[in-house]
Amino acid sequence: MPINFVKVEDYDKKIDIWENAAGNHSKSKLDDMQIKDGVNRFDATVSYAKAIIGTKYKDIQDLVDTFTYLHEIKGEYEKETYEDIPYIISYLVDDARDSVIVLSGGGFAYKTIDGSTSGGKRVAERLNARGVNCFLLHYRSNPYKFPIPILDLQRSIRYIRKNATKFDINPSRISIMGFSSGGYIIASYINQYIGKDFFPENYREDDIDKIKDDIVSAAMIYAPLTFRYNVPMLHAVHPYEQVTDPEQREKLLKKLELKNNLNSENIPQFISYSDGDQTINYNGTEDYIQALQLNMGEVKVKFIDNQDHGYSDDLYIDDYVEWLKEQ
């Protein structure tokens, strides 16, 4: 039975943010992926969603890659080669002071805006209705590994600021928001990447790379802020050889443990999470919040009682916009 894929909402309005994206090359992704035969997209989705939960290591590379292949590559959201170009879709309103770059989730294996409005157009419309500009970012995910998705976020900030006049926005009022894995990218960026250069050695910088990459604020919605409770998910963000080696895997877990790598005390942060989340352990979120508070960081917490992962935007959006406009 053929799979009916739906294109990204407003795909025809996409704007590429890179001509020659850092980390791209012409090699086939399939040479690096462990793809299982005879699996349908639904089963691959369910298997991957279950497999990424847990504090114990499991080799799930085949589940990650099969899901990515069936959804992203077979769905024609991304190419078979490492030649994808990240893009933004703008949703602008008149007289808006603030602009927010939004990253959807997807377990680092795909983006939920590929085929649905989750973490995408629906959020943009809610922000627009409250007088806030929105830019949806389609970043690169598996089989691209870190820091590629985070470099895409950095590039989007610089690109939008460079083209502020074209978009008719205030270049000094750019904020960022991420959902689920997109929220981890946001948190990692503000703690480990902002203001720094992590380009691959063979990348040739352009004028946009010289633009400031600072932001007004950051928001993380039901986001994993540690991999300790989702250890198998490491396979989606780091090379197979590193993840399967116990010593290297522990080093990766420490590096990705954001509460122990704080460097964002000067950036106001909005964090929404729930104790009913079956995918992201809320203890990891609370540990990060506590560490940030102990380091005198500014954080607004919107706790949602007994809601599972991916809860409704209506449960936090008004609090977020009110907080954003106070920054």
Describe the structure in your own words.
- This protein is 31% helix and 12% strand.
- It is built from ten helices and eight strands.
- The protein has helices spanning 41-51, 61-73, 121-129, 148-162, 164-167, 181-193, 240-244, 246-255, 282-294, 317-326, and strands at 15-16, 87-91, 99-103, 133-138, 174-179, 218-221, 269-274, 299-304.
- Helix 3 (121-129) links the parallel strand 3 (99-103) and strand 4.
- It starts with 14 loop residues before the first strand and ends with a helix.
- Keywords: Hydrolase.
- Residues 98-287 form the BD-FAE-like domain.
Large-scale geometry: globular
Radius of gyration: 19 Å
The total strand number stands at: 8
CATH architecture: 3-Layer(aba) Sandwich
Oligomeric state as shown: single chain
Proportion of residues in helical segments = 25-40%
Quote the CATH topology. Answer: Rossmann fold
Q: What is the arithmetic mean of pLDDT?
A: 96
Spell out the CATH superfamily: Alpha/Beta hydrolase fold, catalytic domain
Strand content: 5-15%
Helix and strand topology:
Layout: E1 15-16, H1 41-51, H2 61-73, E2 87-91, E3 99-103, H3 121-129, E4 133-138, H4 148-162, H5 164-167, E5 174-179, H6 181-193, E6 218-221, H7 240-244, H8 246-255, E7 269-274, H9 282-294, E8 299-304, H10 317-326
Helix pairs in contact: 1-2, 4-6
